[in-house]
Design brief:
By secondary structure, the chain is mainly beta. The strands form four sheets. Strands 2, 5, 6, 11, 12 and 13 form a six-stranded mixed sheet that branches. The protein is globular, with a radius of gyration of 20 Å.
Length: 163
């Protein structure tokens, strides 16, 4: 029995080793250009597809700010509080582009003013206040042409300060 188990483990390892393919969607990175900004200063986000796969993201479109899913602020206890950055339906009707293909080894640049959306305030945003933050961006992987096989994933930036 032990010999069979070892054989299964070795066969699985060999298959993983010799297929030469990474897990689909790995190698996606998001980072800010510096670690500290002033409140109201634009944050430059580089969204990188360092994988061998085509991914899809609004970050590569003409409305890249809508690739930002949310802003997270570090709380005193070390947890992260999530804040919306864009007004959404039904309160707001905002046009933005569909996800655009990002080829392997390419990137997209987003210039974004750190703001949070305040629900019930007629679609108005407020400047994010001082603190430690990270930005969560959405991207999509498409394992086939069938939309039921399309999955949304997230990439987190490094932590940065607003002061």
């Amino acid at each position: 029995m032990r010999c069979i188990l070892i054989s299964i483990v070795l066969a699985s390892f060999a298959a993983l080793l010799f297929t030469g393919s990474a897990v689909f969607g790995q190698g996606i990175e998001a980072k800010t250009d510096i670690k500290s900004y002033y409140v109201g200063q634009d944050v430059k986000i580089t969204f990188l597809n360092m994988s061998d796969d085509v991914i899809y993201s609004i970050a590569a479109s003409s409305t890249p700010q809508f690739a930002i899913n949310r802003l997270e602020k570090k709380e005193p206890d070390g947890s992260w509080a999530a804040y919306e950055v864009n007004c959404s339906m039904p309160e707001c009707d905002i046009d933005f582009d569909a996800p655009v293909a990002m080829q392997p080894q390419n990137n997209a640049i987003i210039l974004w003013k750190p703001q949070v959306y305040v629900k019930g305030d007629n679609g108005k945003n407020r400047l994010a206040q001082p603190g430690t933050y990270r930005i969560i961006l959405n991207y999509q992987i498409r394992e086939s042409d069938d939309s039921k096989d399309w999955r949304w994933l997230e990439a987190r930036t490094n932590e940065f300060e607003l002061k």
